[in-house]
Amino acid sequence: EDQVTQSPEALRLQEGESSSLNCSYTVSGLRGLFWYRQDPGKGPEFLFTLYSAGEEKEKERLKATLTKKESFLHITAPKPEDSATYLCAVLSLKGSFGAGTTVTVRA
Amino acid sequence: GAGVSQSPSNKVTEKGKDVELRCDPISGHTALYWYRQRLGQGLEFLIYFQGNSAPDKSGLPSDRFSAERTGESVSTLTIQRTQQEDSAVYLCASSWTVYNEQFFGPGTRLTVL
Questions:
Q1: In what order do the strands lie in the sheet with B5-7?
Q2: Residue A36's pLDDT is what?
Q3: A66, A99, B2, B3: which is deepest, by most CB within 10 A?
Q4: DSSP category for residue A75
Q5: Chain B interface includes A94 (CB < 8 A)
């Protein structure tokens, strides 16, 4: 069975303080890994898809990377509006999502 | 184009009543998913549809839960004889195929009194 583990559970950052979120996975043949952002009271918003080890995707202050066992979401010089819960998921017929990392960025 | 829509946005019901939650996916998306998210918790997978078929219903929490999809479009999640533990946000998502990223609706917040 697919397993997705995210760490840390929560991350408090000062504005401008860069950091990384981790998503480790155990699957029998990764066919895709997704990152989402979820704001309170809203549905998750799609950010990135990564398909193979070594692949990188960027969007504004966010950069996602993938290895054979884990993915990282790097937040560079975060702003308060980057505060959200970030979810990763592996491509699966059973929607295998991690529990998320809640990021709080203080001004 | 329009995103995934869900209705109602909020539903308050009494214990023991039946409720129906509706999901309108993005047009052309063949795959559709239902999740449950309890307050402060992660996403709990319930069921997915490929076209109008649900190949695996094992994620549904109990036989009080059922779902259907018609016309490869709208889907309805029905909860019979609601219990207080059913209180949660129910999220629907759709994707081009089961091999693509999912796009989520805003959710239906269900409160069972």
A1: B5-7, B19-24, B75-79, B65-69
A2: 98
A3: A66
A4: E
A5: yes
CB contact under 8 A, A42 and B48: no
Confidence class for position B1, pLDDT limits 50, 70, 90: low
Residues B90, B100: Cα–Cα separation, whole Å: 21
The 10s digit of each residue's pLDDT in A5-60 is 999 999 999 999 999 999 999 988 888 999 999 999 999 999 999 999 999 999 99
Q: How far is B100 from chain A (nearest CA, A)?
A: 8
CB-based contact B36:B82 (threshold 8 Å):
no
If residue A57 lies in a helix (H) or strand (E), which one and from where to where? strand A56-59
Q: Does A27 touch chain B (CB under 8 A)?
A: no
The residues near A27 (Cβ < 8 Å, ≥ 6 apart) are A2, A3, A90, A92, A96
The CB density around residue A57, as the number of other CB atoms within 10 Å, is 15
What does the pLDDT look like over B35-75, one tens digit per residue? 999 998 999 999 999 999 999 899 999 999 999 999 989 99
